[in-house]
Amino acid sequence: MEFYFPKEGTFSCYPATVVQENKILAMARIEPELVVLEKRRIDEMRTIKDILTGGKIDDIKEFLSTKNLHNVNIFRVDDILGLLKNETYYNIIINALRQRGFFDRRVWKYSLLHGDIQGLKEYLKDSSISTQLQSLVHYMKNDLAHVESFKVYEYYPLVNPRTFALNTNKKEILNTSFKETYSKFLLHLFCKYDLEAEDRIILVNYLLCQDRV
Question: Kind and range of the H or E element at 20?
Fold first, then answer.
């Protein structure tokens, strides 16, 4: 139960009472007087919620820099997300968390909003974000991220028998697994554009598997 008080002061509350035929049958115990303050005292700010209620930005920075951020009884990332739309708060919070080695993608994603290149690089390196990128992009390499979704598979034998060849159509790949791998590799090369020595070696290997060289 919560009460709203229009101003500071000392208040009392009449206890709950049961009355029948103008006779008091029962009464709750009388609570001590309630002191209402506009802001909480500094010595009472033990959790991040306490600080957000009555503290200042310096108090938030001090809390994030010194307290146990893994203790859910005093800190939850959800409580500070509303501050991150403000660039000043964002910079103070993300720098404090970075110094503590405390990463949370919900905080770092605000790097997109504020144009924070360092924060965006760290956000894209997160394993879950990297996995999502690999499912969408075959290859990407720039100052922000390096995504390479293609995985190299080796196939045996490298050289197929040629005297009694089962498939005379060199354009058709009978091995469905190899066909899928080769198609992904071609997409990888198409997105990469500038081939490296490793790419050329893999290409020769896959062409040998098809008797095309």
Answer: strand 17-20
**122: closest CA among 92, 89, 145, 95?**
145
Buried b (16+ CB within 10 A) or exposed e, 113-135: ebebeebbebbbeeeebeeeebe
Q: Enumerate the H helices of the chain as residue ranges.
A: 48-54, 57-66, 87-100, 105-108, 111-114, 117-124, 127-136, 176-192, 197-209
Q: How far is CA 131 from CA 67, 149, 179, in A?
A: 32, 9, 24
Q: Which has the closest alpha carbon to 59: 73, 71, 77, 41?
A: 41
- The values of phi and psi at residue 75, to 5°, are -150, 130
Please state, in angstroms and rounded to a whole number, the distance separating the CA atoms of residues 42 and 58. Answer: 12
Q: Give tens-digit pLDDT for 48-99.
A: 988 888 778 899 999 999 999 999 999 999 999 999 999 999 999 999 999 9
